[in-house]
Write a structure and sequence with these properties.
Elements lengths: L1 E3 L8 E3 L3 H24 L6 H19 L4 H20 L4 H32 L4 H7 L5 H19 L7 H8 L2 H25 L6 H24 L3 H25 L3 H32 L4 H4 L7 H14 L6 H17 L3 H29 L13 H19 L1 H5 L8 H7 L5 H4 L6 H26 E4 L2 E4 L9 H40 L14 H14 L10 H43 L1
Antiparallel strand pairs: 1-2, 3-4
Helix pairs in contact: 1-8, 1-11, 1-16, 2-3, 2-8, 3-4, 3-8, 4-6, 4-7, 6-8, 7-8, 7-10, 8-10, 8-11, 8-18, 9-10, 9-15, 10-11, 10-14, 10-15, 11-13, 11-14, 11-16, 13-15, 13-16, 14-15, 14-16, 15-20, 22-23
Length: 616
Amino acid sequence: MTLFMSNFCSIGLSFKADGFRLLYFGVSLFVFLICSAFAKDYLKETPKQLRFWISWIVTFLSTVGLLFAGDFFTCFMFFEIMSLTSAIWVLHRETTGADYAGRVYLRISVICGMVMLYGLVLVKHNFGTLDLEELTKITATAELSKRLAPAILLSVGFGAKAGVFLLHVWLPKAYTHAVAPGTAFLSAILSKAGVIGIILSSSVLGLVGNETWGNLLLILGACTMVVGAFLAVFNNNLKKTVACSSLSQIGFIMTGVACMVLDPGGLAYTGTVLHMINHTLIKTALFIAVGSVYKMTGTHDLNELKGYGKDKPILKAVFAVCGLSLAGIPGFSGFISKNMMHEALDAVAETSALAGVVSVVFTVTGGMTLCYMLKLFICLFEEKGFASKKPAVSVGRQIYSLIPATSVFVTGAAFPLYAKLPSKAVLSEYRNALGILDFEEVFGFGFFSLTVIITTLISVAVGLGLYFLFVRILLIKNNKGERIYGEGLPLWVDSEKYLYRPVFMIFLPFVFAFVARLFDKLTDLIIYFFRKKVFKPLKKRRPVAVGNSFTYALGTVLDKITRRDKKPGRVSYVTSLALFNEQTAAMARMIERSLSLSMLLFSTGLVITLIYMLFK
C-alpha cells in the first residue's frame, strides 16, 4: 500500500498493486496505445483535436488511478474524473444527437456518482475506514444490513458505468454518437472499470457467499444480457448494434460476477476475468473497424452499407473472428470464457432454481449473439449493394483493428495456457474474502466434453434459427427484389426518452411540488388557527391616523390641553406634528445623501493620494 497526498481532503489517496491489477493495466495500456494510434489517424483534419487529446490522456490516467486504488475514496475520486472527461468524447462531434447523448451520459453519471458518494459515507460511518484491506477484515463479522446497504449504493455508481440493466439507458446513445476511438475505449475499458468496482464492493464488504446479494446480481446480469441482445437483433444501425452487443456482453460478465458471489471458486473467477479480457479485445477491434467504415462511407445505416466489405479480406476477417468469439464458437477465446462461466452457473443451479432459469437464458442469449453478428456479417460482406463502390478503408486503419482481433484468435488457439492466466493474477480482495482460491477445477475443466459441446450446439441452433426464421422473414423486407433492413423496434422501447425522462422531469417534480404546496397550505392553516383561537389579542389596537405613534400621542395630549380640537378652523397638533416629522425625515435623508457623497469624494481623493505617494 502506498500513500500519496496524505492530507488530500483529510483522507489522502492510497494505491496498491496485485496480479489482477497489473494484468488489467497491461490490457488497458495495450488498448490505449492502439486506440491512440487509430485516433491520430481518425481525427486528422478535424477541429478541436486538443480538447479531445487532453480528455483522452486524463481519462486514461484516471482509469489507471481507479485500477490501482487502495481505498474507496481514491477509487471514487478517479472514477468521477473518468466519468467527466470521457463525456467529452460523446460531445466532441457537436451534433444534435451527440449533445443529447452527452447530456444523458453526464446526468446519469452525476446522479449515480452522488448515490455512490452516499455509499462511501455509509461505509465510513459503519466501519470507520475506507481502506480496502482493513474493510475486508472488519466486514467479515459485521451485520448483513451494515454491509448490504452500502454495497447497493456503491454498485449503483459502478453499475451505471458498466451499463447494468436499469442504468443502461445512456449506453446505446453514448456509444453511437461518441467518436470511434472514444467508443472503443468506453466499451473496452471504462465499462470494465464499473464491473471491477462491483467485484470490489462484493469482496471488500464481505458479501462473497451471500445468497441475497448473489441472486440480485444474477437477475441484473440476466436482464442486461437479454435487453442488449434484443436491441442488437432489431437494430439496423451498424454502430448501435455493436453498442447494444456491448450491453449484452456486460450482462454475461455480470452473470459471472454473480457466480463469483454464489459459488466462489477458480472456475467462476477465471471465466469472468477471461471474458472481461476477451470483450476488451473484441470490442476494441470491432469499434475501430466500425469507425473506419463510417470514416469512408459517412453512414452507419445497414441499408447503405450492404456489400461494402466484399473485397476487403482484412475487414472481413476482423468481423468473422470477433463475431464467432462473441458467440462462443469453439476455436476462439469467447468459447473458453463463456463455457467456464456457464459451467459455474450450472454448479449454482444445482441448489438454485433461479440459476437454472438464468442458465437457459444464458444459452438462448448466446444464440441471439450469433444471430445479430451473422446479420451484420452477411449485410456487409455478402449482400449486393452500391456500398461496394465507396472508398475502401486504408490498410493502416484495418491493421489497427486486426491487431486485437488477432489476439482474440491466438488466445483461443492457445486455450490451455490462456485459461490458466488468471490463476497467477488474482484480485487480492477476492482472495482475502475466500482465504484460498482453488484453481484445480480450472486446470481439469473439459472444454470439449459432451455437455459443453451439446450446450454450444444448442446455442448455435438458436442463433441460426432466429436469423433465418425471424430476421430474414420479419425484419428484412423485400422491396422490388432488394432486401431492406427494418428497424423493427417501436418508439416506446426507448426507455430513457419515454420512461425515465417523463418520470424524473415531469412526474416527480409534479409530485414534489404538490406535496410542498400541501404542506405550505397546512402550515398556513395551523398558523391561522393559533392566531384566532389560541393567541387572540387582548385589546384591539387603535390605528394611527397620521404620523407615527409618538407624534400621534403628543399631538393628542396638546390638543386636549389647548382644546384646539374644539375650535373650528384650527389645525390639530396631531396633523402639525405629523407634517413636521415628515419634513424632518426628508431633510435628514438629504443630509445623509450629502454626507455619503462627501465621504465618497473624500475616500476617492485619499486613494488617489496614496497611489501617488506609492509610485512617486
